[in-house]
Write a structure and sequence with these properties.
It contains four helices and five strands; from the N terminus they run ββββααβαα. It is of the alpha+beta class.
Length: about 130
């Protein structure tokens, strides 16, 4: 399946409490997150930029598609994971042959880990107050 200029593929990615709506179209590799450039959005946290671009780099199609992302909720790390899942699902719609490679690298699996709730009588989810024998 070849992409036409007017084609736009939409997908959704989630991680922790972040939700990313991703729109992929043919272009020259521009990534916009909430109408801002990826470098501006993630600032100096280069690892988050790498996580976001992983699906393109693994497939060797870096710079062939423009990505417009609307993300909300959670922190930057959760948002980067949600964006990666959304991009992976979108690329799979662009070309179903990419599914095998994306699946092998774990990009199509939703990371369902969440923050554990705080328990009563404790300062956190697992931490206990210091025990005093006397």
């Amino acid at each position: 399946m070849t992409a036409k200029k007017s084609d736009v593929w939409k997908s959704v990615g989630r991680r922790k409490s972040s939700i990313a709506r991703v729109m992929i179209s043919s272009g020259k590799g521009e990534i916009k997150i909430n109408r801002r450039n990826i470098d501006t959005y993630f600032g100096g946290r280069d690892i988050l930029k790498v996580v976001t671009k992983q699906p393109f780099e693994v497939l060797g199609i870096d710079g062939q598609y423009d990505v417009d992302i609307n993300v909300k909720g959670g922190g930057l790390s959760g948002q980067a994971g949600a964006i990666r899942l959304g991009i992976s699902r979108g690329i799979e719609k662009v070309n179903p042959e990419f599914r095998k490679i994306l699946k092998e690298n774990g990009f199509l699996t939703r990371d369902s880990r969440r923050v554990e709730r705080k328990k009563p009588g404790q300062p956190g989810a697992r931490k206990k107050f210091q025990f005093s024998k006397r």
